[in-house]
Design a protein that fits this description.
Elements: E1 9-12, E2 27-31, H1 34-38, H2 41-52, E3 55-59, H3 68-81, E4 85-90, H4 92-112, E5 122-127, E6 139-144, E7 149-154, E8 162-165, H5 175-194, H6 200-222, H7 227-247, H8 251-263, H9 267-282, H10 286-298, H11 308-322, H12 329-332, H13 336-352, H14 365-377
Parallel strand pairs: 1-8, 2-3, 2-4, 4-5, 5-8
Antiparallel strand pairs: 6-7
The structure holds nicotinamide-adenine-dinucleotide and fe (ii) ion.
Pfam families: ADH_Fe_C (PF25137), Fe-ADH (PF00465)
Keywords: NAD, Oxidoreductase
GO molecular function: alcohol dehydrogenase (NAD+) activity; metal ion binding
């Protein structure tokens, strides 16, 4: 028996933020970051709460790749304030931190109270990047900054109740971040489509996401005010999230997590650099070649050469080039001696990463090292 669930209610398209007007919460906590304050996005939300006279408290200390320390601080905030709703406004980092806060808050309460007395605040995720799909997944990634390790958490408790995708909220994302987060979507969709846990529901969402990214990422990169493309990218991000929440990911993410933890590079950018090399590696497998062929035809891409791996590789590489994404970690600027010094430790991390377990092709330490080297040297 298999299981598939789509949980959050999703409000999307222009003015989706108006959905906030329909709630009558007594007290709200807002988890966010300084970027949301600076770009005026937090004000769009608080204006709405002010208008309704809803009491709110802001926790805006969340940093990129949220640390265990910031989650601890946020946990104290929510324990003290006891809100009936938690709204996460921000990119994947903010949403993941809010998820971890909810996770520890509920599990903390469960130590002292029976389940009937443990109330979970209504959890609303408002993503301000189109990338992680975190608004529809039960995963969160937090970082132990002392050990440079990313810690994955998985629990249905962390699944938001509501996701609000308003394209106006992603208008201010700088082009470089639009490119990186958009390639994160592409990576989620491709990895979910071929993962060992792929299934008809996940494939359907993943395929549509790939089609939308090929169509909308470049326009949304070159014109930040193209709200139609921005909205398509939000939908693609959400669909790819639904797909990988059910099917899991693969070693692009395992390697990107290790690169991200060691070199503090944006998650989407690390994925974008690694993805073509993993397509080549997995695409040597005959079953994966058939899956790539289905993915291409489902996305309206003709596979003229008959070599689905080469076709997908070339399409992804030319999209990356059009977004000015570096072709390798070396071109990105990581010195070779730093890479070689960290390589064994990163290999350990990638081999032990949960995403490695669902990669469609079994990975040895040697093959992981080969792909990692390709992503570093760009060959
Ligand atoms: N939970 C999941 O399923 C999942 C999946 C993939 C990635 N992740 C995690 O998500 C994190 C990455 O998230 P991200 O790529 O969304 O970036 P992010 O949340 O780290 O944000 C990056 C920067 O962009 C700024 N920003 C965000 N929205 C903006 C906007 N509209 N305008 C201007 N600036 C804006 C932020 O303030 C921040 O400085 C990583 O920690 C990664 O591990 C989680
Ligand atoms: Fe990702």
């Amino acid at each position: 028996m298999r299981f598939f669930q789509v949980k959050p209610a999703i409000y999307y398209g222009e003015d989706a933020l108006n959905q906030i007007d329909n709630y009558n919460f007594k007290k709200v906590c807002i988890a966010t970051d300084q970027g949301m304050v600076q770009f005026g996005l937090l004000k769009l939300l608080t204006d709405k709460l002010d208008k309704k006279g809803i009491e709110y408290h802001i926790f805006s200390d969340i940093e990129s790749d949220p640390s265990t320390e910031v989650v601890e601080k946020g946990l104290m905030h929510i324990i003290m304030k006891k809100p009936d709703a938690l709204i996460a406004l921000g990119g994947g980092s903010v949403i993941d931190a809010a998820k971890a806060i909810i996770y520890y808050n509920i599990n903390f309460k469960r130590i002292f109270f029976e389940d009937q007395y443990v109330h979970k605040p209504t959890f609303i995720a408002i993503p301000t990047t189109a990338g992680t799909g975190s608004e529809v997944t039960e995963y969160a990634v937090i970082t132990d900054k002392k050990k440079n390790v990313k810690i994955p958490l998985t629990d249905i408790l962390m699944m938001p109740d509501v996701a609000i995708l308003d394209p106006k909220l992603i208008e201010s994302v700088p082009p470089g971040a639009t490119a990186a987060t958009g390639m994160d979507v592409m990576t989620h969709a491709i990895e979910a489509f071929i993962s060992t846990e792929n299934n008809p529901f996940a494939r359907c969402y993943a395929n549509k996401a790939v089609e939308l990214v090929f169509r909308s990422l470049h326009p949304s990169y070159v014109n930040g005010s193209d709200l139609e493309s921005k909205s398509s990218m939000q939908i693609a991000s959400c669909m790819a999230g639904i797909a990988f929440n059910s099917a899991g990911l693969g070693i692009t993410h395992s390697i990107a997590h290790a690169f991200g933890a060691n070199f503090h590079m944006p998650h989407g950018l690390a994925n974008a650099i690694v993805l073509p090399y993993v397509i080549n590696f997995n695409g040597q497998d005959e079953k994966v070649q058939h899956q790539f062929a289905r993915l291409l035809s489902g996305s309206g891409i003709s596979n003229i050469s008959g070599n689905s791996t080469a076709t997908l590789f070339n399409k992804v590489v030319s999209l990356s080039e059009s977004l000015n994404i570096p072709a390798s970690l070396k071109v990105f600027g990581i010195p070779e001696e730093d890479y070689l010094k960290a390589r064994e430790e990163m290999l350990d991390k990638a081999m032990n990463d949960i995403c490695t377990t669902t990669n469609p092709v079994a990975v040895t330490r040697d093959s992981m090292k080969m792909v990692m080297d390709q992503a570093y040297y760009g060959v």
